[in-house]
C-alpha cells in the first residue's frame, strides 16, 4: 500500500480533458480509458457514456455558435472549450459569454489556462475516476469465504504490480 499515493499522483498528472475518441485513436483497445474527466469510458474497445451526461450533449452548441472571431472552439462531444490563447484580449468577452451560456443551459463553466470549458453539472473529475478505479472490489452478498479469500489475493497481487505495465489506465 505504500506505493499507492505515488501511483495516484502519477495517474493524476496523466489526466486531462480529452475525449475518449481522441485517446482511442492513439492507444490499443486493451487499455482502459476515461475521457472528459470520467464522463466517457472505454473498456475493451467499447465506449460507455455517463447516461446523465448524455442529455447535456447539445447544450454547448450555443457557445460554439456565439464565440467571437479569433477564439478557437473545441467541441468535445459532452463539453466544449473556448481557447483565447492567440488573442488574450478576448478573455473578458469569452468569459462573459461562457457565464451567459452556463446560466441559460445549466452547464458549468470552468476557467482554464487561457480558456473556458462548459461541462455538464455532474460531479466527475480526474480524482473521482482515479478513486473509482483504485478502489478494491468489495465482497458481494452470497460470496463464500473461499471466494472472498481469492478476491483478496487478486487485490494484493494487483497492488504489487509495477507502476508502468500494459494494463495502465489512461484518464483524461
Describe this structure in words.
With 172 residues, the chain is an alpha+beta fold. It has two domains: 4-50 and 124-135 and 146-159 and 166-171, no CATH class; 57-119, Alpha-Beta Plaits (2-Layer Sandwich). Helices cover 37% and strands 18% of the residues. The chain has helices at residues 4-13, 20-24, 51-54, 61-66, 91-105, 126-134, 145-159, and strands at 33-35, 40-43, 46-49, 72-75, 80-83, 108-112, 115-119, 170-171. The strands form two sheets. It has a four-stranded mixed β-sheet with strand order 3-2-1-8. Strands 4-5-7-6 form a four-stranded antiparallel β-sheet.
Question: Layout of helices and strands, plus pairs?
Answer:
Elements lengths: L3 H10 L6 H5 L8 E3 L4 E4 L2 E4 L1 H4 L6 H6 L5 E4 L4 E4 L7 H15 L2 E5 L2 E5 L6 H9 L10 H15 L10 E2 L1
Parallel strand pairs: 1-8
Antiparallel strand pairs: 1-2, 2-3, 4-5, 5-7, 6-7
